[in-house]
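Quick check before the chapter quiz. The format below is the same one you will see on the exam, so make sure you can read both the input and the output lines.
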Amino acid sequence: MNRQVPLRILFLHPTFTFGGAERTAFNLLRGLNKDKFIITLVTSKKVAQHFSELSLGKIIYIDEMGIDIWFREVTIGNLKKFWSDVRIIAKLLKSESPEIAFGMMYYASSLLSIAKKIFRLKTIVISSPRGPLNAYINTFYKDKKIDRLFWKLNFYFSCHYSDGLVVASDGTKRECIENYKARPENVKVINNGIDAERVRERALETVATSIPSGYFIISTAGRLAHEKNLPLLLRAISMVRKTEKVKLMIIGDGPDRPELERLAYAFDIKDDVYFPGFQENPYKFIKRSDLFIHTCLLEGFGNVIVEAMACGIPVIATDCPYGPREIIRNDENGILVPMEDVETLVQKILLLLHDENLRKRLSDNAYHRSLDFSVERMVEAYENFFPRFLKIL
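Here is the expected output.
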């Protein structure tokens, strides 16, 4: 980038939870060259705490601005709130005058692209919806016509009227172009990056569990929510448990935890399922398992899959749109199973449980595959992508 002053970027991420997308944002903002980029982060006070160690130009709290996170139902009140959020963002862009505004996830991308179009702002807007678009609509708004229309219009604005898009998978790129009129030359695929060395170091930390020896331990990790489809995993474990000595660790917390605990009781496996809750260091739990399973209905990329690979743990994942199939080479460094296919999932669990050589081969290959998704590669890709829009200013 041939300029003497740093590029000013406003990074909009309205969220109150810290998960995979937030870890990606942390890794990116930590890695960006501070001599070339000045970052203003706009997020909640709760999430901003995780970024406190970074040398950011400025942090603005959505809590104090009146910005909400995305809502899950279209009502008159929510539409008014949405319009209010658009106006607040337009005012923010005028006052802060960033050269680039980057929208992290669906709602931020919508707010920025609509604010720019309606208020004719000069700020370069880069949208980053992160995950699959149609699968998101079908998962959360399957029988809600008005909501589906609302989000399709939002995705159209984000894809068509943004100056650029960054997505984490080739599948999402195709969807943005084919379904929502994004210009191919403006869409960049940048896979999420992880710090594999740090993951492996933290995985070696001690962990106290009450799981007795002699059991095949299966783990999963993430926000306990509908899109993770954990009832499928519980059902599979209940079937495997009939003949095998297995234990399941569900690492994380979220709105579906009470229902998952109820299902574990209903499936008569409550003594075989452990809920350690949210863990600042989930890797030390994953490392103690023999197998990691990922059962999502949709996935922007799948950071936790790569992190489990970095821990040297074999992975089974559902072949959901779009991330897992772009990380896992089936039967080479992991195993893909069809979505909602509990019988095949059980078969693959039993296969790995009984074949130690296969587990070892997949584990070794998985670790080497995880090195393809480094933080350094991700940061370099962003640093090369941002300056290309300077000619528009």
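If your answer matched, good. The domain at 7-193+374-392 is CATH 3.40.50.2000 (Rossmann fold).
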